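Hey,
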Amino acid sequence: MTVFDIQWGYYNLQMAEEDIWKTAFLTDKVYFDDIIVYSKDPNEHEGHVQQVMTKLMEAGLTLKIKKCEFDTTTVNYLGMIYIPEGLKIQPEKVDAITNWPTPANIKEVQGFLGATGYVRRYIRNYSEHSQPMTELLKKDEEFVWNDRRQKAFDKLKQLVTEAPILALDDPEKRKIIRPDASGYALGIALK
């Protein structure tokens, strides 16, 4: 893998001032200021890197060389670590969650759920495990930290430390989607 970090990435696009607000969007296909070049065949990788560099030069884009990584097997990207076996959580994120103090108010519950929610794809049945704390986010819900919520809090911290390495998707393989739902959670298993 090779990672290119584009100098001034997002701001290389010229546009009218009144249209800038239109460019705030999310997509699963593009993250504009970083580019990862991945090749199944290591022998083809150099050619793929050259193609991307040629396109960047044609577009007049420059790279932050200090932040680029060439021909590596491990890439730290968007808060996750890509390794040959798949995707794993950054150790810093695991440490932050496992050292999180017991919430003393709604805002602290929101912070913890935000942090664990970011890595929820690694936690099987995340909604079920987080549900006792999520109840506190309901309008007019009184903050009461009870035994059930403490157990849910501790369980989520434990599950983050046991998080598996997730396999990367192979777009060529057929997928089977198995949905499930309860009164408070939705889940989908992709097989």
